[in-house]
């Protein structure tokens, strides 16, 4: 766990945050996802199982509120997928997304070996953010387009 004090550029207030690699509670995770308009499963137990099945978590807590997170899912050997990279709307622009990605990238450096694939599905308009971390846009020319199915 790391405690950090930042200065909020917008209101010039100090912001105390706690960065950790501890998974959030299901209720914290649900609230953060809902803050950006994402849907959740109906079963709290299934959400908890999903949280616990992750390979890696990084969370940022401000006060007692989860304000940013990211996780890695996959098989832990050949395939790693970045998932749920979320920053609460009221905390966007404070560098929390960068902190989450830096933590994930540091973890991946120790786990992903040569030949492994690291993937993600970027939300519309967020592609340039991930490009800063050397993720490539799949435009269909060399690798084909990425696809997904929502249930």
UniProtKB/TrEMBL annotation:
It holds the Pfam family Acetyltransf_7. GO terms for molecular function: acyltransferase activity, transferring groups other than amino-acyl groups. InterPro entries: Acyl_CoA_acyltransferase (IPR016181), GNAT_dom (IPR000182). Residues 17-151 form the N-acetyltransferase domain. It comes from the Bacteria. This is GNAT family N-acetyltransferase.
């Amino acid at each position: 766990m790391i405690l950090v004090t930042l200065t909020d550029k917008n209101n010039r207030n100090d912001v105390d945050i706690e960065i950790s690699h501890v998974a959030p509670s299901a209720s914290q995770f649900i609230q953060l996802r809902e803050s950006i308009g994402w849907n959740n499963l109906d079963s709290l137990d299934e959400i908890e199982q999903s949280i616990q099945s992750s390979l890696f978590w990084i969370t940022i807590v401000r006060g007692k509120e989860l304000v940013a997170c990211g996780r890695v899912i996959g098989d832990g050997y050949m395939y790693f997928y970045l998932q749920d990279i979320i920053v609460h709307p009221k905390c966007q622009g404070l560098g929390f997304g960068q902190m989450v990605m830096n933590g994930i990238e540091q973890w991946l450096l120790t786990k992903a070996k040569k030949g492994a694939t690291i993937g993600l599905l970027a939300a519309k308009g967020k592609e340039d953010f991930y490009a800063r971390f050397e993720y490539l846009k799949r435009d269909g020319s060399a690798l084909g387009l990425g696809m997904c199915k929502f249930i």
